[in-house]
Amino acid sequence: MPIESGSCASARQAKQKRKSHSLSIRRTNSSEQERAGLQRDMLEGQDSKLPSSVRNTLLELFGQIEREFENLYIENLELRREIDTLNERLAAEGQTIDGAELSKGQLKTKASHSTSQLSQKLKTTYKASTSKIVSSFKTTTSRAICQLVKEYIGHRDGIWDVSVAKTQPVVLGTASADHTALLWSIETGKCLVKYVGHVGSASGDQTAHIWRYIVQLPTPQPTADCNQMSGEDEVEFSDKDEPDGDGDGSSDCPTVRGPLTSLKSHQGVVIAADWLVGGKQAVTASWDRTANLYDVETSELVHSLTGHDQELTHCCTHPTQRLVVTSSRDTTFRLWDFRDPSIHSVNVFQGHTDTVTSAVFTVGDNVVSGSDDRTVKVWDLKNMRSPIATIRTDSAVNRINVCVGQRIIALPHDNRQVRLFDMSGVRLARLPRSNRQGHRRMVCCSAWSEDHPICNLFTCGFDRQAIGWNINIPALLQEK
Q1: How far is CA 388 from the centre of its chain?
Q2: Running DSSP on this structure, what letter comes out for residue 102?
Q3: Which helix (H) or strand (E) holds 78?
């Protein structure tokens, strides 16, 4: 009977505490408007060089922070009361069950265990709430202007990869599952040449081809005005609006039917390739779990880079040093060092929990990796034990690309979104998706062109088109 009466008393106490907690929150909410008005009056009476819209935004954010921490404070008090109640119940139950008074050491152990569990709950609640506040602050104050400039339509199947020439003339290249690669005029959207030398989807024939064509750029025509959209606008649409690749683009352009050089050492699909600094060697990544380093002039295999446990997904070379980074479905990416001809070192990095879809070099000694675990991580090559920034998203991340000059990361997603972040993990924009703009299926790849005056970002996807964007980052954000 004493046990039942104690349980009833505990239940009544818990009910009264919940009621008190609810009343406290209700009082907090009822006074929010009065407090906000008082803060605005105080802010208006102060001298400030900030625009009124920025000041109002900051005021609302700090008000939100205050409300969140006030709720946390109330919950903290409630949890501490529960700790005291549970300690008292443990002591009472110990006496009843054992029929004798428990030693102080035993009671202390049980109470400590209960306190530890509740403390962990408090920490988890605190971290989740503060993370929500910081995320809200970042997305509200960081904006970029994104404008769709040109669509490149002509492939008959999904586009796996997109790239921009780093030398003159600056043209756009795409590789597709329709067994072709196309070069495009960035300004006009016209196909300049079609390569049909592969017999598989995007090097699915287990080879990498080097081919040559003299490009003659057409005269640019005036670009039709596009509706300017911020990076957060979105209207859903269906796949019925998918562009028809059969009637446009590549049907009347010149065709190259064979390679100048063919690199043949892989036993699986070649999924990526890149040039080492100097242009005399190239590296390829394959589903056969290896990356190969070739001499371009002789087509000879120089090194076979082995060690990954599953298929490779991407490879990238450093712009100024003989370094290669490869990524794989084995959740790792590896750094290969060829700077010393006599020593070829390799470092393995395990920072993700799912397929690493790409890893790329950036300015200085940084590497950025993206993964199907829905995260992107920024690493410092001098200390790769933990990332210096982590970006968490709501969808798997495909082949990322970094604008070195402005230090912006473009994230293409499985859910058709493309998001832009800076190197510290602050979100800048989401590329617009409306009833006639944006990708209609998974976005596979992105590529920056920092020197082009019209388009400085390109994306491609399974909707058989590539898109050229003009991304304008406000000067205030670039100075951060």
Answers
A1: 14
A2: P
A3: helix 52-98
Least Cα distance to 352 among 384, 376, 382 occurs for 376
How distant is the alpha carbon of residue 319 from its chain centre? 22
Write down the pLDDT at residue 476.
42
For the chain, residues with pLDDT lower than 70 are 1-47, 93-143, 202, 219-249, 435, 475-480
Whether 240 and 463 have beta carbons less than 8 Å apart is answered as no
Complete DSSP assignment for 455-477: --EEEEETTSEEEEEEEE--HHH
Burial call 233-268: b when 16+ CB within 10 Å, e when fewer: ebeeeeeeeebebeebbbeeeeebeebeeebebbee
Q: CA 224 to CA 123: how far, in whole Å?
A: 54
> What is the DSSP code string of 358-385?
EEEE-STTEEEEEETTSEEEEEETTB-S
How distant is the alpha carbon of residue 11 from its chain centre? Answer: 47
Cβ neighbours of 411 (radius 10 Å): 24
CA-based max dimension of the chain: 97
Q: Which residues pair with 447 in a beta bridge?
A: 458
